[in-house]
Amino acid sequence: MITGACGILRGVLKRRVPRVLVAGCLMAVVVSGLSACRTSPTVAAYVGDEQVTVAELDAAIADRREDPDVAAFADANSDPFIRRVLTLLVDEEIYTTVAQRYGVEVSDDDVRARIEQLLGGEDPDTVFGHLAAKGVGRADVFENVRQQLVRQEIAVQEGEAEGLTEEGLRAAYEQARQNATTTRLGYITVPDQPTADAVLAQLTAAPTSYAAVAAQHAGQYTLPEIEERTPDQIPGPLAEGAAAAKPGTGFTVAVPEVGGVLVAFVAPYPPFEEVRPQLEQQAASAAATAGDALVQKVRDDLDVTVNPRFGTFQDGQLAPDDTGVVDLLEDAAAPADQAAPAN
Predict the structure, then answer these.
(1) Per-residue model confidence as pLDDT tens digits over 189-199
(2) Closest Cα partner for 258 from 224, 281, 226, 235?
(3) DSSP string, 162-193
(4) What torsion do the CA atoms of 134, 136, 138, 144 make, to the nearest 10 degrees?
(5) 47-70 per-position pLDDT tens digit
(6) What's the pLDDT score for residue 312?
(7) Quick one: which of 257, 307, 320, 256 has its CA closest to 80?
C-alpha cells in the first residue's frame, strides 16, 4: 500500500497464475491516489515532479479508440477504461524513473522477443484481437511487457532473483525432477496380450516413439501423446501399476470393458533442453515478482497522486480493474484444453 501525508488511492490490474509458463508473469498496474496538496483541474495525475495532464490522457484515449474493438469496449465501459488508461500512463512515468534509478534498459527487440514467447506460436492477429475486445491495445501490451522485463532486470541486478543463468536453470530442473508430483503417463489399447507385450517392449526400448506407436493403435482408449497426470487423474485400472512403475517402464492390464489389453507406459522425466522454455518462463516470472517490491519503493518515493474526478473510492482505494495485460496475452494465446480420455 502506498502511504503519504496527502492520502492514498490505488488501483490494481491483477494477475492470474498461468499454466506452463509459466510460471507465471505478474503484470500489476497500480495507481495511487488523491492528494489534497497537489490538485489542478488540468492535471490527471502527479508522478513525482512529472505530470500526466488531462490533455495527455484525452489524447491517449483517442489513440486507443482508433482500434474499433478497443473503441467498442471503451463505449461499454467508459469509466473503467479511462481509469485503466490513466493507470497505464502513470506507470509509464514510474517505470521511466525506475529504469533511470537502477540504470537498466530494455530494448524494443527484447520486448518483441518476450511477446513472441508469450504468444507461444499462436497467431498474433487473433491474440491481439482478443485483447482489443477487452480494451487492451497493442501499444499497451508492448509497454506492459517492457515493464515486466524492467522488473526482471532490476531484481537480478539487485540480487533479489537469479535470473536466467545456466546454473540457475539447471538447479531448478533438478529440483523439479526430484520433486515431481505428477506421472507422465500414456496408455495404448491393443487387441491381445502378445501385441501388448510387443508394444511395451518397443516403448521401453525407445520411449520417444510413444506418439508413433500410439498412432498405430488409435482409438477411444488410447492416448495419442504422453500426458502429465496427477494420481486422481489416472484411470482406475492403471492407478496401482502407474504408482509402482519406474520412469521408462510400463505394464499391461487386460480390461474387457475396453475390448482388449491396455499397455501403460510411464515416460521418463523430459530432458533439460525440452523443458528449458518452461524453466526460463518460471525464472522470468520469479524475477519479475521480486522486482515488484523494488518498483514499489520508487512509487512510494514519487508520491503519485490522482485527480479525484478519475477515481472511484472504495475503502480509500481506486476501484480495481480486473485486467492483467500479460495474463490476458497468455490466456488469449492458450490453446483449448484437450478432452481427457474416458477413465
Answers:
(1) 999 999 999 99
(2) 235
(3) --S-HHHHHHHHHHHHHT--SEEEEEEEESSH
(4) -130
(5) 889 999 999 999 999 999 999 999
(6) 41
(7) 320
Separation of alpha carbons 237 and 320, rounded Å: 48
Q: List, by residue range, all CATH 1.10.4030 domains of the chain.
A: 11-167+275-333
Fold of the 11-167+275-333 domain: Triger factor/SurA peptide-binding fold (1.10.4030)
- Residues across the chain: 343
Tens of pLDDT, residue by residue over 71-80, are: 999 999 998 8
Element (H, E) at 263: strand 260-266
> Cα 185 from chain centroid?
25
Q: Where in the chain is the domain with CATH 3.10.50?
A: 182-266
Q: Please state the pTM of the whole predicted model.
A: 0.59
CB neighbour list of residue 33: distance below 8 Å, 6 or more residues apart: 2, 7, 8, 9, 10, 304, 305, 306, 311, 316, 317, 318
Q: Which three cell numbers stand for residue 204?
A: 521401453
Q: 3-class SS at 37?
A: coil
Does the pLDDT value for residue 309 go beyond 90?
Answer: no
Q: What's the whole-number average pLDDT of the chain?
A: 79
C-alpha cell at 82: 479511462
Provide CATH code, domain 182-266: 3.10.50
